[in-house]
Amino acid sequence: MSMKTEDLRTKTDDQLETELGELKREAFNLRFQAATNQLEKPSRTREVRRTIARIKTLQAERANAATAEAKA
Fold first, then answer.
1. 3-class DSSP string for the chain
2. How far apart (Å, rounded) are the C-alpha atoms in residues 3 and 71?
3. Is there a contact between 29 and 21 (Cβ–Cβ < 8 Å)?
4. Integer Cα distance of 41 and 30 in angstroms
C-alpha cells in the first residue's frame, strides 16, 4: 500500500496533511506492536517511514515554490 511520489503529487495540501496524520498514527501503532513483539509485517514500518518522508519532502518543495513565487 506504499504510495509513490507521483500519486502524492496529484493530491492537494489538505489531502497530504490528512494522509500524513494517518501515517503518523500508523507508525505509532507499529512501534507499539514492535515493542510488544506483536508485529506481523516488520517491513511495513519502513514503508510508512519512507512515505512520511516523501510527504514532508513534497510539502517542503511546495512551500519553497510558494515563497519563491511571492518574492518574484
1. CCCCHHHHHCCCHHHHHHHHHHHHHHHHHHHHHHHCCCCCCCHHHHHHHHHHHHHHHHHHHHHHHHHHHHHC
2. 32
3. no
4. 9
C-alpha distances in Å from residue 72, one per residue of 65, 67, 68: 11, 9, 6
- Ordered per-residue pLDDT tens for the chain, 72 residues: 566 889 999 999 999 999 999 999 999 999 999 999 999 999 999 999 999 999 999 999 999 999 999 987
Largest CA distance in the chain: 53
pTM of the model: 0.89
Angle at 49 between CA 44 and CA 51, to 5 degrees: 95
Q: Are 42 and 70 spatial neighbours (Cβ–Cβ below 8 Å)?
A: no
